[in-house]
Amino acid sequence: MRLDKFLADCGIGSRSQVKNFLKKKLVQVNGELEVSPKRQINEQSDLVTFAGRLLKHESFVYYLLNKPKGFISATEDNQHRTVLELLDETARQKQVFPVGRLDIDTTGLLLLTNNGPLAHAMLSPKRHVFKVYQAKVAGLMTAEDVEAFSQGIELKDLDCQPAELQILETDQTSQTSLVHIRIAEGKFHQIKRMVASRGKKVVELKRLSMGPLTLPKDLPPGHYQRLTGQDLADLSGFQVDL
């Protein structure tokens, strides 16, 4: 592997940034200064340091994004801004993609990775990966709605699996409700359609969790963070190579 690719894979910077770091003599290979980006190295056995810090090559990366409104869950689109536009150049060059999708007006947790097998595992219907959403609803949700969700909502083209509806609060004055909805599916507009089948309308929707991942309360909309430590350990439960 070329040294500049190795450094970029380790998140040091873009290819152009890496070349500048090499010129500034910030990189060593096996204890010796290296300035050539074309240097071939063995990413498993060679010791590469940047500014004195030992680097470890990563095949896969994972970013947790707090998706804002106005962006679509895609890698490219001719009409709308995509979630990849929220990432910096270093993150984008990892060729990550969103795991699943959130509607353009839906906010909250979105996982981006370049690990295809993990994405497939998390989206597989056989895995029953639960997702929790917070919804502001026009209309007053009731105990009857809770029961209907628990039995499985029947839509025109889909029999939804049983879901959990938790009513957090209702406002008689504004005739609105705040609820949490937990589902194991993720069909097109499913949450909105389930609520609509009960005679109400979702006016705001935010995903709070997906499988073992939970949206950090201190992560602002439009911002993201790399997954490390315990988050990666939790994802290992999907039994794919991380």
From TrEMBL:
Enzyme Commission code: 5.4.99.-
Residue runs in coiled coils: none
InterPro entries recorded: PsdUridine_s_RsuA/RluB/E/F_cat, PsdUridine_synth_cat_dom_sf, PsdUridine_synth_RsuA/RluA, PsdUridine_synth_RsuA/RluB/E/F, PsdUridine_synth_RsuA/RluB_CS, RsuA_PseudoU_synthase, S4_RNA-bd, S4_RNA-bd_sf
Record's keyword terms, sorted: Isomerase, RNA-binding
Gene3D superfamilies hit by this protein: Alpha-L RNA-binding motif (3.30.70.1560), Pseudouridine synthase I, catalytic domain, N-terminal subdomain (3.30.70.580), RNA-binding S4 domain (3.10.290.10)
Domain of life of the native organism: Bacteria
Gene Ontology biological-process annotations: enzyme-directed rRNA pseudouridine synthesis
The protein's enzyme class: isomerase
SMART domains tied to this protein: S4 (SM00363)
Signal peptide: none
GO cellular component, one term: cytosol
Domain RNA-binding S4: 1-66
Molecular function via GO: RNA binding; rRNA pseudouridine synthase activity
Family: Belongs to the pseudouridine synthase RsuA family.
Name of this chain's protein: Pseudouridine synthase
